[in-house]
Amino acid sequence: MSLPAGFTHLSVSRGIRTSAARVPHKPAIEWAGGRVSYRTLTRRMNQLGHAVIGRYGLTAGDVVALIAPNRPEYLEVVAGLSDHGLVVATLNPRLAPAELDAIAADCQPKLVIIDPALGALAEQVRSMQIAQLSFGPDYEALLAKAADTAPKQVVPEWARFSICYTSGTTGLPKGVQLPHRSRALVAMASAIEYGCFGMSDRFLSLSPLYHGAGFAFAAAAISFGGTCVLYGNNDPAAMLERLGQGDLTGVFMVPTHFKRLFDLPETRFDGLTERHGLKTIISNAAALAQPFKDQTVQRFGPGLLHETYGSTEAGIVTNIRPDHILAKPGSVGTPFISMQVEIRRGDGSLCSPGETGELFAKGPYTFNGYLNRPEATEETLVDGWVTVQDLASMDEDGFITISGRMKDMVVSGGVNIYPAEIEAVIAKQPGVQEVAVVGLPDDEWGERVHAFVVGGGTPMAPTGAILDACRAQLSGYKVPRGITVIDELPRNPSGKILKRELRARQD
After folding, report:
1. What is the reported pLDDT for 31?
2. Which of 11, 218, 242, 252 lies at a C-alpha separation of 20 to 30 Å from 296?
């Protein structure tokens, strides 16, 4: 490909390095045990790249697997190795050994960098006879001997930056290949849209960095001279106290975080709006129930909450901004910066406003296809448009509402039923904190509608009253045949509801 003179390829590391030139002594990353400046971060990125290539003989395009919980070295590994054209597969540190075997067979890593505290996984890596580097003394000794010079080779922006394995809510995880360009542009667009990734901002990173959104927002925090604050305490009371200390301007949370916070007594939020310094709260990874949106506005204040919809494959697809978060209940907003969104019927034609169909997205944040899965890539990339088989509708104003996964659609008596419509009605009932609607096998109808409900805060309405509300607001065939009250909905580490586990209960 012929490029114009002076063309510069986009990359996540370039944003970090530019920040180091502007504010070298400013903290780039903070955590409970300390902080690292931009100058130190870029030095360590340089050293790691040279050290890994020198010791293990890796070349551009080789895969390095990273298996660790959130820790300060995480960002330097991904950004530093990517500067040399190495591809980092960011893996869930909670993988079972058999799951790790399957993923390693898929991505064929030449090196595994691992947290030594992950004893079982570390043993599994050793048994696989893959080169292994552990954080701690070995890692630090390797860096200390390496050169501190910036890499000189040019890595094309469309080359692979990382591989994220999908959470596998419907089956085995797939390796999503993400290019440098899409990750850099996600950071830039996020800085514009959310307003909390500037040089004066301090962003709290709660979510796992191996997850696409968790890494994307953490990387955005250090791409423009801000500070990424890593926080690993999952205790909701401690989390709330940290959010209220006044030094943070942004935070990304998944629905699990919201639920844990709002399970706390309401009195714990007294005076919070005066204490916190937050400009932005971002929700992503799974649908945020409307009651949680209402509580966020009530307890943190208006003008803060954004709910973002997207996928690992497509990047950020839509965002609903704070001024519409209550005015458009259930909606995930309008297309994100530079994104195109279409809602299509089964024959490919465009749906009318309010009509449910399959959501397709197109824009600069998309993936390079699945690793070793050409058939799956072809199903997901249709004429340049990405679909992850989510059902959605768009209203007259262009606001999009997600109805659920195509695989989660209930077909009862040959009629399509969209769970989100039923969930929206149940979520409004007194004391209902969360709800998930699934189809359970039925001898007569094929599937029957069933709701799983989680209560919290105030006493929950009796199930009979909830069903009466459904009858008053929904067609008869959409009314659940039964309701099961449970303590919590099953979720994967990214916060997505595992409806297959609910269906397996056969209530």
Report:
1. 95
2. 218
